[in-house]
Specification:
Layout: H1 3-15, E1 20-24, H2 28-38, E2 43-48, E3 52-54, H3 68-73, H4 78-81, E4 84-89, H5 98-112, E5 117-123, E6 136-140, H6 146-160, H7 168-177, H8 183-197, H9 204-219, E7 222-225, H10 238-252, H11 254-260, E8 267-272, H12 278-289, E9 293-296, H13 298-301, H14 308-323, E10 326-330, H15 333-337, H16 345-363, E11 368-374, H17 382-385, E12 392-396, H18 401-415, H19 425-430, H20 437-453, H21 461-469, H22 474-477, H23 479-492, E13 495-496
Parallel strand pairs: 1-5, 1-6, 2-4, 4-5, 8-11, 8-12, 9-10, 10-11, 12-13
Antiparallel strand pairs: 2-3, 7-9
The structure holds adenosine-5'-triphosphate (ATP).
Length: 499
């Protein structure tokens, strides 16, 4: 967070008489510092879960065992409330309690009626009870930018290492690695890196990476996916792969490309048949771009409180942007945005969430490359498919004969490279029309397993044919749906991922 802009915003909100300011951050200490700097002589009533009602300066309890309710009751008239700041920490779990919510609302009303006071809620999670919605203003912590991070590193070096020379490029690398971390976390990591051998070296970058992974895990909505798959693990889908390679060239040379006049790549939507390599492509793309892959779990994003899912999306996006350059993989996009435009609370939240996402996609200029995948394009709202949101929309269909041959090669080679040259892949291809990539992988896996169980020294064509016979292919299972989808893609003129 940049202290200064946060301070200015908070001061402005307090001056403007906003009744409740919700500071969404896990840096409580910083909020304390800011409040003491901008508090012009108002009395601070602080309450937290551990100690109850405490003295803001010394953090010692003012009244033994004072519950949140008791403290709120001490302030329940304009006179009592006047010239106070009510600072509430760890209170989110109390929002389940209608009595507490109604008491907070009562105070907010008094402030609106003229009491010179402000309620400040500090929490790392954003939960807004419906009843308080119209009284609350959210204040988001900004992440540190590269220059601010560099300054922290340089200050640290000056204080701890003296003028020992840490080269400029290493500082740059550290600064990139630290993106998305708070000042507190950065200083901790610097201290840790320094403590092991008294210097800052390239090896310490590993530590930072691990720490970041921890942080992403803690935030809970994004997941960092390990990168094993490369573009060579994908059989077929040549158009899509070609497209990714071109974007990777731009992405990896962004400075040069920008100067040339090339726009920052935004992302791609890959829609189509399940099990045909959509996820595989998201992973391969991150590998090709040489950046981390973050998966956004849309299911977990949807919270049970009003504003929670929006807050979660905002946090996820902010985190991804802070970590960028990265690929942000949004899996099962249609699940998140089903029910848009409908009526009722749930649909409303979804519609708003969707609006926020669209705006972000439209205006985004950070190197966060979005790979969205969807099985059912029919469920996606048309706004999403308009130009300007994604750089391109591809559909992935069932693999054709040439592609099936490649997919067989990849999966046999992965498990039984020694058998590959004796296996008649052509024959397998002929027998697997309507099979998805995942079906083919399944067939190979089964054949290898049964050959092993039968003590065979090698896997042969016949073993795989046997497995094919025992498989119900995807097109057998969902024939009508697949045909309908194929027509839809044609109608909408999406690009075919295959050549
Ligand atoms: P879903 O929508 O069900 O998640 P998906 O299209 O994302 O499906 P993937 O997860 O990419 O499918 O594919 C499932 C598995 O099938 C992959 O892990 C891979 O092993 C295999 N597979 C699918 N398509 C291909 C392909 N074109 N080349 C090689 N392997 C493939």
């Amino acid at each position: 967070m940049e202290n200064r802009s946060m301070k200015i915003k908070l001061a402005r909100y307090i001056d403007a008489g906003f009744p409740i300011i919700y500071v969404n951050t896990f840096e409580e200490d910083k909020v304390d510092t800011i409040i003491s700097e901008i508090n012009y002589g108002k009395e601070i009533y602080e309450w937290n879960e551990t100690n109850g009602y405490i003295d803001f300066e010394s953090k010692t309890p003012l009244i033994e065992d004072c519950s949140l309710e008791m403290m709120l009751d001490m302030l329940k008239s304009i006179d009592l409330l006047d010239r106070k700041i009510i600072l509430l920490k760890d209170v989110v779990s109390y929002f389940e309690d209608a009595k507490i919510v109604s008491k907070i609302k009562g105070l907010a009303r008094l402030i609106n009626q003229g009491a010179d006071a402000t309620i400040i809620i500090v929490s790392s999670v954003l939960v807004i009870p419906k009843d308080l919605e119209k009284y609350i203003t959210i204040l988001e912590m900004d992440y540190l930018n590269t220059d601010e991070i560099k300054k922290i590193i340089e200050d640290f070096i000056r204080e701890n290492l003296g003028i020992q020379d840490v080269n400029e490029r290493l500082i740059d690398e550290f600064a990139v690695a630290f993106k998305g971390l708070t000042e507190f976390e950065i200083l901790n990591l610097l201290a840790l890196s320094y403590a092991d051998d008294g210097e800052l070296t390239k090896r310490d970058l590993r530590l930072i990476f691990d720490q970041k992974q921890q942080m992403i895990k803690k935030a809970g909505i994004l997941e960092m996916i390990p990168l094993k798959e490369t573009i060579d693990d994908i059989g077929g889908l040549e158009n899509l792969k070609e497209w990714f390679k071109r974007k990777a060239k731009v992405y990896k040379n962004m400075g040069k490309a920008k100067k040339y006049g090339v726009d920052m790549p935004k992302g791609v939507l890959i829609a189509g048949v399940p099990g045909c390599g959509k996820s595989l492509n998201a992973k391969a793309a991150a590998n090709l771009f040489e950046v981390p892959l973050l998966r956004l779990d849309m299911g977990r994003l949807m919270g049970k409180y009003v504003g929670e899912s929006e807050g979660n999306l905002r946090n996820a996006i902010a985190l991804a942007e802070a970590i960028s350059p990265c690929v942000l993989w949004i899996d099962e996009l249609e699940k998140a945005f089903a029910g848009i435009g409908g009526s009722g609370g749930g649909a409303e939240v979804t519609t708003r969430l969707f609006g926020n996402f669209l705006t972000w996609m439209q205006e985004k200029d950070s190197p966060t490359f979005v790979v969205a995948t969807a099985n059912d394009i029919m469920k996606l709202p048309p706004e999403l498919l308009r130009k300007g949101r994604f750089d391109e929309i591809f559909y992935v269909g069932l693999p054709n004969a040439v592609e099936r041959e490649k997919i067989f090669h990849i999966h046999i080679k992965k498990r039984r490279p020694q058998d590959l040259k004796y296996i008649k892949v052509n024959e397998l291809v002929r027998k697997t029309e309507g099979f998805s990539g995942a079906d083919i992988e399944g067939v190979v896996k089964d054949a290898v397993e049964s050959a092993f169980a039968d003590d065979k020294t090698s896997v042969q064509t016949q073993d795989i044919l046997e497995a094919i016979k025992n498989t119900h292919s995807l097109s057998e299972i969902m024939k009508d749906a697949l045909e309908k989808m194929a027509k839809e893609y044609e109608k909408r003129k999406f690009k075919n991922a295959s050549r």
